[in-house]
Each structure stands twice: as structure tokens, then as C-alpha cells.
Amino acid sequence: MIVHHDDVDAWVQAIETADRAGLGAKAGAAPLVRSCLPELAAAGLIPAAAAG
Predict the structure, then answer these.
(1) Given Cys at both, which of 6, 8, 45, 50 links 40, Cβ 3.0 to 4.6 Å?
(2) Is the pTM of this model over 0.90?
(3) Angle 12-16-20 (CA atoms, 0-180°, nearest 5)?
(4) CB under 8 Å to 10, separation ≥6 — which residues?
(5) 38 and 48 in contact (C-beta within 8 Å)?
């Protein structure tokens, strides 16, 4: 997909219509989500019991 850097409407359309799951699968992308609860508990931001 080629979009001119100044064409905001084209960027919006490209982002809104992109097949994110398909593109991610083709790229071999893995979810970048992990539990941050232990770090939050260690920083004292949440009770240790909430970190599980």
C-alpha cells in the first residue's frame, strides 16, 4: 500500500480499512501484551495481592 505522506484522508482510509489481523499474521507478529501487575505491585501502585 502506498500513501502520500501529505494525504491525510488517504491515511485515514488506509488505517480504517486495513486487515490488521491478516497483516499481523503475514508478518508473523505476536501479541505484545503481558501482565504488568507484578511491576505495578513492586512499585507500590497496587496491593501485592492484586498482582496474583
Answers:
(1) 45
(2) no
(3) 130
(4) 3, 4
(5) no
Higher pLDDT: 21 or 47? It is 47
| C-alpha cell, 18 | 486495513
Q: What is the pLDDT of residue 49?
A: 80
Cβ atoms of 50 and 37 closer than 8 Å: yes
CA 3 to chain centre: 22
* pLDDT tens digits along 25-40: 777 766 666 778 888 8
What would the grid cell of residue 14 be?
A: 488506509
